[in-house]
Amino acid sequence: MSNSLEEMKTHRRGLMIVLSSPSGAGKTTLTRKLLAENDDMAMSVSATTRRPRPGETDGVDYYFVSKSTFSDMIDADEFLEHAKVFDHFYGTPRGPVEDALADGQDVLFDIDWQGAQQLTQAAADDLVKIFILPPNMIELEKRLKSRAQDSAEVIAKRMSKSEAEISHWAEYDYVIVNESLETAMDELRAVITAERMKRKRQLWLGPFVRSLTQGG
Hints:
Layout: H1 5-9, E1 16-20, H2 27-37, E2 41-43, E3 46-48, E4 62-64, H3 67-75, E5 79-85, E6 88-93, H4 94-102, E7 106-110, H5 113-123, E8 127-133, H6 137-146, H7 152-166, E9 174-177, H8 181-196, H9 205-213
Parallel strand pairs: 1-7, 1-8, 2-7, 3-4, 8-9
Antiparallel strand pairs: 3-6, 5-6
């Protein structure tokens, strides 16, 4: 065949990578490191009905839409998942994600177990779900306090909610205990490498095998 083997190997279908965890387990740090290491990986951009906050850019941080537009998008089945959070709606537009996957780009999702369930129903073949656990609840509370972002009351609420979130760990494909950031990153890289190597995602294999059997 005219294309080199290395060029052919770049022809793959992207992954939808869900990272879920209780608040304080280190998911945000792991996500940032993944994005910094992978040029062919991007964060999913959600649509929302809330107003932009200072410094937020439409199409980068969120797609800011009206409630009527959001409702129309639901009716047209334009979301992979969506939910109401307090007084606002949030959802993952289907089009940009499917375009990225077809282009061989991985898309990261920072969503909870409910969003992960919806994504499973919408696109199970493209999805890999990873749950991040803390080493223990004492360490989880310590990390929440060290961020110095929340009051004692808010931290108590987050700790209470974390038990309900952790109860859904068995719904995920992989579970990583984040005791050491370095070790957790190594395990995360291993998961993503293995998922990228799955036969169904390596679109170049069919033509390559045909070239072998035809004496190419």
